[in-house]
């Protein structure tokens, strides 16, 4: 078995800093977590907020904290540092090899989409962002880890694409991209969803955009070699 992760992101048009942050953290008991945060606003201030959130979450995961506890602790930290005046979304998607499960923690207005052998499920219950309300809890989901699963989430720049131009993204098109691809195609799925949102926004994105995709692949390696590829345009 192999876990693949694809991430694609871009800045709001004419803004130098992307207010979204995405990070990958290795779990000490086995597995990996992808972290997505969208800081309030845009530009450098939003980037500082989202970076603070993902870095704190990654450190807690590396220390062995459970995902729900991570979300609560990061909320408390952001609330204390920013005096409850700055919010951020936070989504954690984990392949936990210790329990052989997928664990998801959501504090976001954007869904997590899961494709398995049988169907596509959308998890989009209402939930508060972190950092503002004194008491906050994430929405948690846990499923058996199965080969062939695809998990997708994104920031609200994808969800709101085209609104400033009188258009709207067709969610069925997003589902079609996921449906038509396999767990090995995580980078292609992330790139395709981002490209579709950019097209709707006439390639002048009205907000920061990030797509994260995790795929559980069926492989049989003699040598378990871990690889990471990064493309960072400057």
Topology of this protein?
Elements: E1 2-10, E2 20-26, E3 31-39, H1 43-62, H2 67-81, E4 88-96, E5 101-107, E6 112-115, E7 120-123, E8 139-144, E9 150-154, H3 156-159, H4 171-179, H5 186-200, E10 209-217
Antiparallel strand pairs: 1-10, 2-3, 3-4, 4-5, 5-8, 6-7, 6-9, 9-10
Q: Care to give the gist of this entry?
A:
This protein has helices at 43-62, 67-81, 156-159, 171-179, 186-200; strands at residues 2-10, 20-26, 31-39, 88-96, 101-107, 112-115, 120-123, 139-144, 150-154, 209-217. It has 234 residues and is α+β, with helices and mostly antiparallel strands. The strands form two sheets. Strands 1-10-9-6-7 form a five-stranded antiparallel β-sheet. A five-stranded antiparallel β-sheet has the order 2-3-4-5-8, covered by helices on one side.
Task: Please give a structural write-up.
A hairpin with a 4-residue loop joins strand 2 and strand 3 (31-39). The chain has a single domain (2-217), classed as 4-Layer Sandwich (Phosphatase 2c, domain 1). Helix 1 (43-62) crosses helix 2. It has 234 residues and is α+β, with helices and mostly antiparallel strands. The chain is built from 5 helices and 10 strands.
Give the tags.
single chain; 234 residues; alpha+beta; Phosphatase 2c, domain 1; five-stranded antiparallel beta sheet; 5 helices; globular
